[in-house]
Amino acid sequence: MAEEIFVSAATGAMRSVLGKLGVMLSNEYKLLKGVRDDIQFLKDELEAMHKFLVAMANVEEPPEQDKLYADAVRDLSYVMEDKIDKFMVLVRREPSSKPDSFMELFRKSMEKINKIKFRHNIAKDVKDIKIRITEVSDRHKRYMMDPSLRATNEKVDPRLEAMFKDASLLVGIDGPTNVLLKWLDNEDGESGHHHQLKVLSIVGSGGLGKTTLARQVYNKLGADYDCRAFVSVSRNPNMASVLRSILRNISNRNASPEESIQQLIEQIREFLQDKRYFIIIDDIWDKNHWYQTLSSALVRNDCGSAIITTTRNIDVAKLCSGSQGDLVYELQPLGVDHSKKLFFKRIFGCEQNCPPNLKEVSDDILKKCGGLPLAINAISSLLTTKERKQESWDRVRRSIGFDKGKNDDIGDMKYILSLSYFDLPLDLRSCLLYLTMFPEDYKIERQRLVHRWISEGLIKCRDEEDLFELGEEYFHELVNRSLIQPVGIGYDGKARCCRVHDIVLDFLIHKSAEKKFSTLLSSNPKSDCIVRRTFLMGNEDQASVEKLDLSHARSLGAFGSDVKQLPSFGKSNALRVLDLCKCYGLRSEHVKDIGRLLQLRYMNISETMVMKLPREIGDLEYLETLSLHMNLQELPESVARLKRLVRLFVGTDAKFPDGIGNMKNLQELGIVDAMKQSVEFLEELGKLTSLRKLKIRWASESGEASDKEKTLMSSLCKLDACKLRNLSIELWSPEEDATFIGRSFFPNLHSIREIRLGSGWITEWMLSLVNLEKLCLFSCGHEIVQQDVERVGSIPTLLEFRATNDFVGSISISGGFQQLRRFDMCARTTELTFEAGALPNLQELFIRWVSFELYDSPQLTFEAGALQNLKEFSLWIRLDKLESAGAGLDFGIQHLTSLDRLRVVIDCAGKQPHALDMALADGVFKSMADTHPNRPTLKMMKGYNYFALHDEE
Description:
disordered C terminus, plant defense, Apaf_helical, five-stranded parallel beta sheet, WH-like_DNA-bd_sf, 18-stranded parallel beta sheet, Rossmann fold, P-loop_NTPase
């Protein structure tokens, strides 16, 4: 029977403990007399405590005595789970069928004795915990305050100030205001006649100034309408009160408290039926509030009416704008200049009045604020109370945080962010708090984060849902709610990574400390502090790291090449997550004791210098994710014992042991170099019937199909008939047999989604693959001509086409590539033309431009009607090409009607460019961006290789 594993910041390990106690009460575990009754008592008590913790989780300012009780109960839940886990591991170890020698017989006898001894220990532990639970409950009852005596401090919503702020005090709001005014402008310039209702949505994180922006537009346009209203919905609204407020604003009539929501909707609709109205609905949190109530009341007439909604949720914003989904304005943080203006205006009146000794510390503080107006106002307000001495400002710089500042503005900032935090379900809150396990400004990979969430038990599984897919939903929900910043948004609209705004991270650190969820070693925790989750940066005192008590730790991460030492794993019995990715200073000896981490679920030692695994790794029976260094040569035989392993990531150098067929739960595997494996391994590969994603590398040794090839093909066919849905193949062939790819023995599998072609060339076999989505060509010596482009374009399912091969001759792209979303090419052409109607669904275009003649100017043309959905255009181009083209360079990017981002890498060909040359380059592309109808964002970089284009993906 599998026990449920679920942990949260609010309830600790309580739900997991309840599940495991239920398992212990089953007949699977033999318990000593009396222990079963004690466990049943614990289970009953903990169920009541669990309900209390869930209720407490939604109380934003709980009484101190309740907080102490909740902390004590959470601590107990972790202690209990650690003891239960230790018991389960030792009792459930399966003995071998029959001892082969006296020593084996002696060992098995000692195991039985130890198990009896351990059952006595667990009996004692259960009784001790029973006593502690009783003491905690009694203490809470003795000192619980009478609810009638509790003080109530009603918090005034700080956004009220934003609604009525003097426009002269605002900074950086003119640009966004003008955009919204333009969106609301009637096409023919006439007011009030026969225009459809426009619904605009402003979306962004808390503290960006959405309410302030909406109020400015309201003040500028309100008088032009027959009636208007500005109402706030907030997180837990009384919708009847919201509707009464709308009715009162538009008609000056107070509705009776007895009138129902339906009656209020009917009155509002009747009044607005023939009116040109302007209504702002501020701070919508839930789709239902708009869909079920507000949109029903606000009648859609043809009088030129307008509605503006503000929200923190992108999905809500899109729903509100309806069919006019393009009228969603994503409010961005203030730029550097506007941030400085706001900051210095509040403290000194202007930047010029700032003392020179405070300039540098001011820049550091502003970087921390990250363009968030609320944060800038809060910190500047705090600094106005400080002496104008560098030491005082340095203390603020070092200690910006919600538990440090005590002024009202810091409290307002905490309140705004708390609204978003408490609007999350409990499991999503825990996943958000887990982001405190990464350093400031760190780019967090989505898949890595989700795997860690799963291993910690933070994702609540519903029915038969796939945990990874559910974890990705959690990630995208946090993006939608503007709580994390998306990085590297792909053509599927999903972010590959995320970052956490510094101010949001400070808030999360504060909340995490309240819940004792994670511990920052940089914060100098007390010596008696229980560390459950923490990370190392390499700047810690080495002696302290060696002595670090990880006996209660569940997650340990490390970041950067400065990490050269790890704490002892001797007592790390509770560790679930060990993430050492990119710690280049760590070697094989640092993980020699990982076999002791019996609860480990996730281990990532990729991009380290760990080149050898200890054979004890096979003892980690709970391990689910294992990510290894790409240059690791061989996996120990014991890896085949990891029966719960779900994901195994290795490099192409790794040789696998036989016995992999035992890994029945394996769902992801890569990258496997098939030629380095035994025939037995390739045969057992076909037994991994749960495999969903597989990456293999295949390099043929001869022109004839070998035994390995035949065995591999047989296994791939078996997997294709089971659960395999995503097969990525990297293919290489000997130079003398460049056409081997596509021979009759290579199957046409439905699961093939990606082909990476290292040598050989495009064949009929590739063109016949019915689900091929990605094709990457990096075949040296093969040039791509017009005919090749047309052949690849005929693949109907292709979403992504990358080629480091040179496109040569005159290339014209018109038809084909109907589904292509990303095109990455190296152009050595004399002319490259994208004709009208070409690449209708393309969203990302990458071009590295090289021509035969050193001073040939680029002949790149985008015709009108081409690439109508292109969002991002990235270009690598040599500086001398720009010099030859001069200021008249024109690609026709104005025809790219959906362009949002323009990125340019200027290759200086290894030379130090003259300032005037770079100014010319900047001017050329700035002019392109400025004259484009969409005013796309422009990013210019200097670089000496193509990969500079991909640094920010």
